[in-house]
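If you are new to this repository, start here. Below is one unmodified record pulled from the training split, so you can see the exact layout before writing a loader.
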Amino acid sequence: MRRAMVYSILDQAVLSAFNLGLSLLLVATVAPADFGRFSYGLAVLLILGSVHNALVATPIGVSLPGQGRATQADILSVLLGADHRLRLALMPVAAILLAFAGADAAFVGPALALCFFSLWRETQRGLAFALSEAGRALMIDLVAVSVSALAAGLLWRIVPPVSALLSGMATGSAAAVAVAHRTGPFGHGGFGTGGRGGGWRRYGRFWHEARWSLLGAVTTEAQFRGYVFAVQALRGADTLGAVQAGRTLMGPLPLLASAWSRVARPEMTRALVERRGADALRTVILGTGGVLVLSLGYLATLALAWPWIEPRLFGGRYPGIGVLTAAWGLTTLIGTGHICLGTYLQAARCFRPLAFVSVGGAAASAIALAGLATAVPTVYAVGAVAVGETIALVWSLVLVVGIGRRREAAGDETVGEGARP
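And here is the target side for that same chain:
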């Protein structure tokens, strides 16, 4: 697991550095409104990614570990076919959402291409991690980042900056998918349409859990990204650009949590299948503690360097950026804890209670975001997100503690709702 964790951390470090670099480039070179549009396009991608993750990547992550190769091949014949159908079905949804920030083809076209190929690439990354091939996942993302940077650089002087970056990132994801196809462990790399017939009917065996994962994903996005649409609708692209600029420097923190979760979830799933509930619980405790310590170290470094960062990066073009960045720091720290605990609950196949956690957090955030219709300061939007994240974190902690107590009371190593094979 240590080697896989090193690869996963390197993978997330590469992605974090690339995404942070793109955001910093735009913050320093374009108007807040343009940065707001770019951020809106990425928010649409992340929302679609959560739906896709719930219906494809999560079933792959919790169904493959501990299974024989023949069983894995059968599972993938269903889930990879579902992956293709789902991506095609999500494109009209993406087009409608993107149109709210501008209907011009120079924005919508590249953003749609990015959504399609990024979701495809995420399937391949998830497959690599589920099979404990973190090195292959790193290779896939190195290709994506390298090609994206090259393509965006070539387009930068030809088309507007936002279009150049979106087009370059789409090209990079497409190249990464091609590499994943050639290196796929089952000889198809995800290009198949599902092997045997049956389509969505064969997917039914995963649906009873995936539906709760989907509900959780949708409400989690409403909780943690609903502010993007609320600010865009109630305050405009300029204000959204300012809010997102404050969040820019927080990018490495959720990626750090994701790096841990991609490696830890298969390990915890395997431990639970083998009736080693104490090992799974130990993994989430140590992992959450480690992620939070590293996150606090990053935030402390950022605070010390702020007098140097603010004038060079933001240059006075974003009033109140210090308060916004501090608010995002606290909110993101809460969110990383929620990600870690949620990973354990996914491994324990507690999808139904985890969905209700997201519903509660999303409802609290939505109610709070309604206040943006009044004359509240811009930082209020971040506070509304923090309210939902806090509720979700406390609720998740209660569930994890409850699972541990039930295991002890039962006197065995069974954890969660679906730990038994």
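Two things worth knowing about this chain: Residues 187-198, 412-421 have pLDDT under 50 and may be disordered. The longest helix spans residues 277-313.
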